[in-house]
Structure formats: C-alpha cells, structure tokens
From TrEMBL:
InterPro entries, per database record: MFS (IPR011701), MFS_dom (IPR020846), MFS_trans_sf (IPR036259), MFS_Transporter (IPR051788)
Record's protein name: MFS transporter
Residues of the Major facilitator superfamily (MFS) profile domain: 215-413
Transmembrane helix found in the keyword field: yes
Main location: membrane
Membrane-topology annotation of the record: Multi-pass membrane protein
Species in which this protein is naturally found: Streptomyces kurssanovii
Gene3D superfamilies per record: MFS general substrate transporter like domains
Subcellular location: Cell membrane
Record field: transmembrane: 12-31, 43-62, 74-93, 99-120, 132-153, 159-184, 280-303, 309-332, 344-360, 366-384
Keywords: Membrane, Transmembrane, Transmembrane helix
Taxonomic superkingdom: Bacteria
C-alpha cells in the first residue's frame, strides 16, 4: 500500500503541473492582446517572445545550482507564485519597460518551475516503483486546455487582460502555496567545494557525475519533440487556413484537438509504460508523430489536416515525460542535475521549431516544411535504446527509495 505522504505529494505536484499549464496557455493564447495593449510592433514581437525561452533556459541552469544547497521543494514552492504574479504583472502594465520586466521574470521563474517540477516527479516515480510521470504531464495538458478555454472566454467577451488573469491568479496562488505543504522532497546536503567540482562534461558529487555525452541522446530527443510541439502550436492554424483553405474559425480547431489527444495519451501512457516498457512506448510515440506529420503534409483538405494534427498529439505526448524519466534512471544519484540540464533543451527545441518551419515555408513550401519535424521525430527511433529496458518494473534489483531520499537525485542504488 502506498504511503499516504507519497499520495499527498503526488496530488500536490500534479496540481503544480496543472497550474503551470493554465498559466502558460493564458500567456501564449493572448499574445495578440498583449501586443495590442503595449503597442509592440510585428518586428519587435519575435524578440520579446524569444526572450522567454532563453531566460527560461537560464532559470533551469540556475535551479541546478540552487538545488545543490536547498531542497527542490523550496524552489518549486516559490517559483510557482512568481510565475503567476508575473503573468498578472504582464496584464496590469501599460509601458514597454513593464512588459519587458514581466516577461523576463516570467521566463526565469518558469525555467525554475519546469525543472523543479520534473525533479520532484522523477523522485516520486522512483519512490512509487512504477511509471507515474506521464500522469503529471497529463495534468499539465489539462491545465493548458483550461487556460486556453479561459483565454477564449476573455477574448469572446472582450475582457481586459487584467480582468481575465486576476481571478485565475487569486485562486491559483493561494492553492499552490497550500498544496506546497505536501511536496515530497528531501533536504539537499550542504556540499563543500570539493563535492561540487564541475567541468564541461559533468558534475561530480556524492551521487556521481552527469556526463553530457551520456545525456546527449536524451537532449536530442527532447529538442526534436519540442520542435514538433512548437510547429503545432505556432503553425497549425496558419497551415489549415493558408495551405488547406479552411475558414478562420475552423483553423482554431487543430490545436485544441492536439491538446485533447495529448491529455488522453498522457492519461493512459503510464499504463503502457508499465505493460510494455519505456522503449516501446517512445518508439510507438515517435512513429505516430511521424505519421501525423506525413498526413498533415499530404492532406488534400482541412479535415484530413486536422486528423493529422490529432494523431500528432497522441504520438508526441509520451516522449517528453519519458525523456525526463530516462534521465532520472540514467543518473539515479544526480537526477536533479540531469533534469535541469535536459530541461534546457525543451527551450532549445521551442526556439528552433517555429522559425525553422517559417523559414522553410517561405523559401520552399509549408507542406515540405512539415516533413522536417517529421524526419527529426523519426530520429528518436535511433536513440530509443537510451530510455532503458525494464522501466515497466521499477525496483527489480534495486531498493525502493525512502521518502526522505525523494528529491535527492532519485533512487539509492
């Protein structure tokens, strides 16, 4: 029987993923309103948007440093309210410097939030002794659907940004702070200088070394997955309308369908990992995602294109959570460091994906551009072995970690 503290920790962490999904969806779906509020030109907008993932990468790296001396749960406890308050600040300002500061704070804190959530998730999965990471990311997808729906309502009724965001922040900030009481994560030991030596290829310490050459296959998979994800989020509506001739209203459907199938795939994905193992699930996801891109590229009309984006959601949704989980298994003694470094490639993929597809679409064709993320996601098959075997049966040959060890880098081997 699962320890009640683990169950409470799992529920509170799932709520954190949900809250993050709501916040991020509220930001990205209201970008036109933000641009109009602050008078940001079309030429300047990409710079503002690119700053968020860049600073998020910085926040992830800083989190790696912080958790050497502080508990992961403490980083998450304070990063989440800062993300939400930065979102509210973005809605409440009216001068250019204010939007710059708000987006900067949002980017830094969201990097810390993403890294710390996945660190705790990996530790909890190790303590449970079975796959649960996909469930956390399913909560994120559900939050994204809720956030996008709230954004639609705000746009539909022509509500001011601050009116749309304030009720969400008022509800989620106190709830996140209360929920943080049940985070499960051990205190990080105080390390002396001799225990935190670093180099270009890793970090040495009480749990071993995180060598980048060992992390590289997972980093590539993470990048490929987020190139695919950013292609859908940034180009699905334009593709349906401009290439497949749909109406403006119909062009909004593919991303919603993608998010719903992402939620469904993640909700049942842990069962697949337990039954068939992570390698099989990741391979299946990569193939499904590639099929989805191929259908989109060859689609004769809008409905076929929507079917392709729907299949894409089922395929891509399993890859990212299992990449984090694989890092936790590969670097069991220093999973916090591995997750922080791997999380940076989330933002690398996001930064590359949208400009890459846009440039190829303008220079070549948007149909042809869809074949590039298809080819990249297929490369995941080459690196699928890095996800390890036996992941459906945690604990075989290993002692399950005590609760006190959760958040200290995964299992005790």
């Amino acid at each position: 029987m699962t320890d009640p503290r683990l169950r409470h920790g799992r529920a509170s962490l799932a709520f954190s993923f949900f809250s993050q999904g709501v916040a991020f969806a509220l930001l990205v779906t209201r970008i036109p309103a933000i641009q109009e509020r602050y008078g940001i030109s079309d030429a300047l907008l990409p710079l503002f948007l690119a700053a968020v993932p860049v600073l998020a990468g910085v926040g992830s790296v800083l989190t790696e440093r912080i958790v050497r001396r502080a508990p992961v749960s403490a980083v998450l406890r304070w990063a989440q309210p800062v993300v939400l308050l930065a979102l509210l600040g973005l809605a409440a300002g009216d001068e250019m410097w204010q939007v710059a500061v708000a987006l900067g704070v949002f980017g830094l804190s969201v990097g810390a939030l993403d890294a710390s959530m996945n660190m705790l998730g990996i530790g909890l999965q190790a303590a449970y002794g079975r796959s649960i990471m996909l469930g956390f990311h399913a909560a994120y997808s559900l939050g994204g659907i809720v956030g996008a729906s709230l954004a639609w309502a705000g746009a539909h009724w022509d509500l001011a940004l601050v009116v749309s965001y304030l009720p969400v922040v008022v509800v989620l900030v106190p709830a996140a702070l209360v929920g943080s009481r049940w985070y499960v994560g051990g205190e990080r030991p105080r390390l002396g200088p001799e225990a935190v030596k670093g180099g270009d290829d890793g970090v040495a310490g009480d749990g071993g070394r995180v060598a980048f050459r060992m992390l590289l296959p997972l980093a590539l998979v993470m990048t490929f997955a987020y190139i695919g994800d950013s292609t859908v989020s940034n180009w699905s509506a334009k593709y349906l309308q401009d290439v497949l001739g749909s109406s403006e209203e119909l062009a909004t459907v593919p991303y919603n369908a993608y998010m719903v199938t992402t939620l469904v795939g993640r909700a049942v994905g842990d069962l697949g990992v337990r039954r068939f193992g992570a390698v099989a699930v990741v391979r299946c996801g990569a193939v499904l995602a590639a099929v989805g891109f191929a259908v989109v590229a060859a689609a004769p009309g809008a409905w076929t294109g929507m079917a392709g984006f729907t299949v894409l959601g089922l395929g891509l949704c399993v890859i990212v959570p299992q990449t984090f989980a694989a890092a936790g298994r590969l670097f069991a003694g220093r999973s916090d460091v591995a997750v922080a470094r791997l999380n940076v490639f989330n933002y690398v993929g996001f930064l590359i994906g949208s400009p890459l597809v846009g440039a190829l679409g303008d220079a070549w064709s948007y149909r042809g551009a869809m074949l590039v993320p298809m080819a990249l996601v297929l490369l995941t098959l080459v690196y699928a072995g890095s996800f390890g075997d036996g992941s459906a049966r945690y604990g075989v040959g290993h002692e399950r970690p005590r609760i006190a060890d959760v958040g200290r880098g995964g299992n005790r081997v």
